[in-house]
Amino acid sequence: MSTEKLQGSPALKTGVMFEGIRYTDALGAAAEHSLPNYYPYRFKQGERDPTGAGKANIPYLINTADDTLIRVLGNGDSNWSVSGDRDSGYRLVHDERPDEAIEISFEPLHDWMQAETSDGFPIARAGVSTHGDMMVINVAPGCEYFLHKADGKSMRCTFCSYGAPDQRTAHLGQVAGQVEIPDLTLLRMREAMAAVMAENTIRHIYLVGGSLSDPAQEGERFLKLARAAQAANPDNIPVTLGSGALPDEILRQFHEEGLVDAVCFNLEVWSEDLFSRVCPGKHRYVGYGRWIESLEQAVSLWGRGRVYSAMVAGIELEPEFDMEWREAADLAVRGVEDLCSRGIIPIYSLYYPVGGKDRSDYQSRLRNYFEHLVLNYRDIRRRHGLSVWQGFMCHRCAYMQLECDLDRQEAR
Questions:
Q1: pTM for the structure as a whole
Q2: How many alpha carbons lie under 13 Å from residue 334 in its C-beta half-sphere?
């Protein structure tokens, strides 16, 4: 087991992700011309609140001079803050090291985000978004697992709130129980893709969407989505399929048509027990063993290094799982070893505990877990000769993950 510590950009990124950033006028001013955060800054009791509203808009993503991308988490207790302005440049400052200010910029509010499609529909609502140099296409975000229950329990993944069918599904034309994506939605998507690629340097395209309880139907939906996306991809930017685990015959169809260059079926957690509790819908409608079989089938088609699974790093520390951080991290590391031995590369996104916050030591436990996991995972990738394919993801777009940052550091 690695006893090293994170160094350089990965250490900075981890510190900012965990500790967050305190509100300053500079941070508030940056929000006016930056990609907006999904979560507003909420002022703690006694904190200076220049808005008088108890909350404020803040930027979503920080870019450092070496192209490290970091998500912004608002935290009134943090020692990190932002100074400067748009003209002179912004700086990330730590209270204990004020002379070591770090020059940063924020992911900008792009012109396309305020433009419209040919029929007057806002491009920002057309199911296309970006973070760094990745374009994410999600024209069917509503997840059927939110609509199903078993023994009175929701089938949605316990960490997820994004997939709830709501106003987003309505304006994208998504209807519960309907597999087909409306042609108008796909037309607007293609126009949005063209607008994004005209303004941004895009190196990765990621196709995602809410799950269907029938994997075969989900596969049919994603086939149509992939064909439409490739029709609007004249420069052959690498495309990744981010569906759930699919039947083998549909995977072969994706491969034979050359629709995607990589796949990412999100197992989320390691061990069947955790999978059944964290992802009850995936367990009920697909199954843990079948999910891994689908990933293995993808390796047989696309090859080692082109098959991924996003994992939720730290959900094991929620109180209901009754796991200490070392136990949870060691379990995750065993999962890394198993998946990598099959040619599957897990990608760990930091999870902010909900119930775990009731414990005074939750942040230190989560940070110990995360650092132990990512450093040991780096060594396992090295031993298996695996690195994250740059066509799938890179350090310019991985804003809550460290694999690409550590791979880049290794290559230097």
A1: 0.95
A2: 8
